[in-house]
Amino acid sequence: MSRLLVTGGAGFIGSNFVHYVLKETDHTVTVLDKLTYAGNLESLKGLPQDRFNFVRGDIADAALVDGLVAGADVVVHYAAESHNDNSLHDPRPFLDTNIIGTYVLIEAARKHGKRFHHISTDEVYGDLELDDPERFTEQTPYNPSSPYSSTKAGSDLLVRAWVRSFGLQATISNCSNNYGPYQHVEKFIPRQITNVIDGIRPKLYGKGENVRDWIHANDHSSAVLAIIDKGIIGETYLIGADGEKNNKDVVELILKHMGQSPDAYDHVVDRPGHDLRYAIDSTRLRTDIGWEPQFSNFDAGIEDTIAWYRENEDWWRPQKSVTEAKYKEQGQ
Ligand code: NAD
Ligand code: DAU
After folding, report:
1. Which ranges carry the NAD(P)-binding domain (predicted)?
2. pLDDT the model gives residue 198
3. What are the extents of the domains in the chain?
């Protein structure tokens, strides 16, 4: 049994991880989360209260972080400003949380000699051509495109430097696009599902040719647990489940499962600097750690996700109109 400190545990992937850990292991979990617009305590309902604790606070608050890290065995760092579109309109919070917040956490982990796992993204590698036979590997050079991905790249480099210069006991994982329950309605899949529920046509940026490599949030969680357990200190592991799909195909799949015509969507203005394609080669994770994804059927995963949003309107409804109003201002 270990005591995990999970930053950003009230967000999409963090909350999925907390549910997963408390179900699959005997670890205890303390969540540290600022509850920004993206954090939601409702995502942490129904957890065993004897093994779960929630602290509202900022990862950049050094005094608060110091005490919490001292009382943990492992820090699992999910907290971030995570949405590319937001980073294009107001980058500053991305620097404060993703760079300074990570710095504060690794300083505390180094001081107290604690195991640290840093959650990052495939976006640090930039993008690929549609016909590129190569996929991202741990050796791909960093080449981030957006304010979001550049701050994530910066945070990864901080962790690497702290490992080398200070002996920080850290691992890093870079995962592809997640889907599943508890994802904010600003993100692609939940936005389109909740649009259709509301009678609004899905919105495809540009031509819809951009490719994302989809993985279920539970597969991300099992990979992170496996890396914490078996990963080698200082190493980076790419997490992906061979789920490449272009955005047009994803929208058409959602429309099909929601009983709509496959062309019932609109093309809207493209995202500036829009990465064309992400694709992960997760060979190292599979061969060195022995991890395998469990959710290989994207079609079935999307059906389950649609059902979750239909059944949990109370969870997403409060965010929907404000999110759509923001997109409308941007012509998206
Ligand atoms: P999210 O936006 O849904 O959740 C982020 C959480 O962090 C929220 O609960 C928010 O309140 C909290 N937070 C933000 N700033 C904070 C601060 N200063 N102090 C404390 N808490 C703060 O994000 P997500 O999609 O769940 O992503 C989680 C992590 O996974 C991020 O590090 C992201 O870069 C990474 N990641 C995401 C994906 C994806 O597909 N969403 C893929 C790969 C990696
Ligand atoms: O690759 C991992 C990354 O995946 C994470 O690091 C990020 O935190 C996460 O937000 C996600 O980034 P993307 O920018 O790929 O995700 P998003 O859901 O914003 O968009 C997915 C794709 O869909 C992208 O090509 C843009 C497009 N899109 C998005 C929205 C919101 C649309 O076509 N229409 C939309 O309405």
Report:
1. 5-304
2. 98
3. 3-179+214-239
Largest CA distance in the chain: 58
In the residue annotation, 313 being an active-site residue is answered as: no
d(CA 228, CA 178): 19
Q: How far is the first Cα of the chain from the last one, in angstroms, to the nearest whole number?
A: 47
Low-confidence ranges of the chain (pLDDT < 70): none
Would you say 167 and 142 are in contact if contact means Cβ atoms under 8 Å apart? no
177 Cα: distance to centroid of ligand 2 (angstroms) = 8
Which ligand is closest to the CA of 126, given by its number? 2
Angle between helices 62-70 and 102-112 (to 10 degrees): 40
Q: Give the pairing of strands 211-213 and 244-246.
A: antiparallel
User: Between helices 298-311 and 247-257, what is the axis angle to 10°?
Assistant: 60
Whole-structure pTM value: 0.99
For the CA of 175, the closest atom of ligand 1 is 43
Among 5, 6, 7, 12, residue to substitute to test ligand 1 (most atoms within 8 Å of Cβ) = 12
Has domain 3-179+214-239 been given CATH number 3.30.360.10? no
Q: With H, G, I as helix, E, B as strand and everything else as coil, classify residue 174.
A: strand
Ligand 1 in reach of 60 Cβ (< 6 A): yes
Tokens at 256, concatenated: 């099909």
